[in-house]
């Protein structure tokens, strides 16, 4: 399925199973790609005659490369640059804005993504559109705690180890993750800069790497990772289908794709409140806290343009993933989609 086809936002309503997260809700819920905004290949393509002697009518050619940036219609070549500007602009206030806007709920959603992933010892994770590192840090905490529990069990089983051996086991930094590693990949230098600063301040070093790269053209070989995550990122990508194909390519056979993204609310009352909150409150908060109304208007508009749960599930299947499922959180405000490369 080709993403980028304009949809006016009026997606068909889909009936879904009652969300498991009501309790949570009521509690609160190939090579490097030095992509420069506006300097991408589609730009070249759009300048090139599309048929013999460029015979295809211009209007048809134009329509074929249009997409959306929020509610605005833009050319595919423009979109990447606009998205880049949004995240360059919000990077410094990104974390504080998320806590303010969601009253901290985004933290719970991200924790639930990790619970769903349930990484095994030695997991190689690729976190695309990883921004300021929220998923990567959670992953490192998770695998470290997992590894410590395992070590304690082993130590208890080997009562006859010397103190030196025990101390050595605890001191070995590299080993503290049990061989697990995470690679954060994002297209935006500013977001990565903020992420690296945060990592430094919090003492994350081992098992963590940062790479500048495009989800549509990942700078990694085939069959490299056990898990691919993308949280609140895929909505911003120009060609979602290409990003999904890339996710499939870089995963090892047996690897898992996990996507946390805004989705379609399945409760009419929540939906109304959510709309009021999104359009009346979020841009105001964006202006007051980050001095940036437009970026937060883009956020709420882009959420409405993203395909609903079932449609996105089909797109993931079209990219070659199997056993694709999704789980709604907070009445479908967000959903976690999962699929396997088998
Ligand atoms: C530029 O692009 C971006 C920038 C970013 O900073 C972030 C992202 C990507 C996003 C994330 C990483 C996730 C974190 C960010 C968000 C969750 C912000 C986006 C949020 C929404 C679009 C709405 C969802 C909001 C929540 C889940 C927070 C809870 C609030 C509601 C569900 C709506 C409640 C609405 C009302 C009660 C009516 C209107 C409210 C007012 C006029 C008063 C102000 C309201 C509040 C402060 C909310 C408190 C109320 C409740 C918790 C009660 C809710 C009860 C019910 C709905 C029954 C990015 O791409
Ligand atoms: C809303 S942030 C999400 C950050 C982080 N995953 C989180 O959950 O907080 C969206 C991120 O997607 C990145 N992004 C947008 N388009 C991208 C692309 N084509 N390839 C890689 N990253 C992209 C942005 O730079 C931004 O850092």
UniProtKB/TrEMBL annotation:
Keywords: Membrane, Methyltransferase, Mitochondrion, Mitochondrion inner membrane, S-adenosyl-L-methionine, Transferase, Ubiquinone biosynthesis. Its main location: mitochondrion. It is an enzyme of class 2 (transferase). SUPFAM superfamilies: S-adenosyl-L-methionine-dependent methyltransferases (SSF53335). It holds the Pfam family Ubie_methyltran. Signal peptide: none annotated. It is a peripheral membrane protein. GO terms for biological process: methylation. It is found in: Mitochondrion inner membrane. GO terms for molecular function: 2-methoxy-6-polyprenyl-1,4-benzoquinol methyltransferase activity. PROSITE patterns: SAM_MT_UBIE, UBIE_1, UBIE_2. Pathway: Cofactor biosynthesis; ubiquinone biosynthesis. Gene3D superfamilies: Vaccinia Virus protein VP39. It comes from the Eukaryota. Its EC number is 2.1.1.201. One of its GO terms (cellular component) is extrinsic component of mitochondrial inner membrane. It catalyses: 2-methoxy-6-(all-trans-decaprenyl)benzene-1,4-diol + S-adenosyl-L-methionine = 5-methoxy-2-methyl-3-(all-trans-decaprenyl)benzene-1,4-diol + S-adenosyl-L-homocysteine + H(+). PANTHER family: 2-METHOXY-6-POLYPRENYL-1,4-BENZOQUINOL METHYLASE, MITOCHONDRIAL, METHYLTRANSFERASE. Belongs to the class I-like SAM-binding methyltransferase superfamily. MenG/UbiE family. Component of a multi-subunit COQ enzyme complex, composed of at least COQ3, COQ4, COQ5, COQ6, COQ7 and COQ9. Interacts with PYURF; the interaction is direct, stabilizes COQ5 protein and associates PYURF with COQ enzyme complex. Methyltransferase required for the conversion of 2-decaprenyl-6-methoxy-1,4-benzoquinol (DDMQH2) to 2-decaprenyl-3-methyl-6-methoxy-1,4-benzoquinol (DMQH2). This is 2-methoxy-6-polyprenyl-1,4-benzoquinol methylase, mitochondrial. It comes from Camelus bactrianus. The gene is COQ5.
């Amino acid at each position: 399925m080709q993403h980028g086809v304009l949809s006016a936002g009026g997606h068909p309503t889909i009936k879904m199973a009652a969300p498991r997260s009501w309790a949570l809700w009521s509690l609160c819920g190939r090579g490097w790609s030095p992509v420069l905004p506006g300097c991408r290949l589609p730009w070249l393509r759009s300048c090139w005659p599309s048929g013999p002697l460029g015979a295809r009518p211009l209007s048809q050619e134009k329509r074929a490369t249009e997409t959306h940036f929020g509610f605005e219609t833009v050319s595919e070549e423009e979109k990447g640059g606009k998205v880049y500007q949004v995240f360059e602009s919000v990077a410094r206030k990104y974390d504080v804005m998320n806590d303010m806007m969601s009253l901290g709920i985004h933290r719970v959603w991200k924790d639930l993504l990790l619970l769903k992933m349930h990484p095994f010892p030695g997991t190689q994770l690729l976190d695309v559109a990883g921004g300021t590192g929220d998923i990567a840090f959670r992953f490192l905490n998770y695998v470290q705690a997992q590894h410590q529990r395992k070590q304690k069990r082993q130590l208890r089983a080997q009562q006859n180890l010397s103190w030196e051996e025990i101390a050595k086991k605890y001191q070995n930094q590299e080993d503290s993750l049990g061989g697990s590693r995470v690679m954060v990949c994002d297209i935006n230098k500013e977001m990565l800069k903020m992420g690296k600063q945060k990592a430094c301040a919090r003492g994350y070093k081992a098992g963590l790497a940062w790479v500048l790269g495009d989800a549509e053209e990942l700078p990694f070989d085939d069959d490299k990772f056990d898990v691919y995550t993308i949280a609140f990122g895929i909505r911003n990508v120009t060609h979602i289908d290409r990003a999904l194909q890339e996710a499939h390519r870089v995963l090892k056979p047996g690897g898992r794709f996990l996507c946390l993204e805004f989705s379609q609310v399945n409760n009419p009352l929540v939906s109304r409140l959510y709309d009021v909150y999104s359009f009346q409150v979020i841009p105001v908060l964006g202006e007051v806290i980050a001095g940036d109304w437009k970026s937060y208007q883009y956020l709420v508009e882009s959420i409405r343009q993203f395909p609903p749960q079932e449609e996105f599930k089909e797109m993931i299947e079209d990219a070659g993933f199997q056993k694709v499922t999704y789980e709604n959180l907070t009445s479908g405000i967000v959903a976690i989609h999962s699929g396997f490369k088998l």
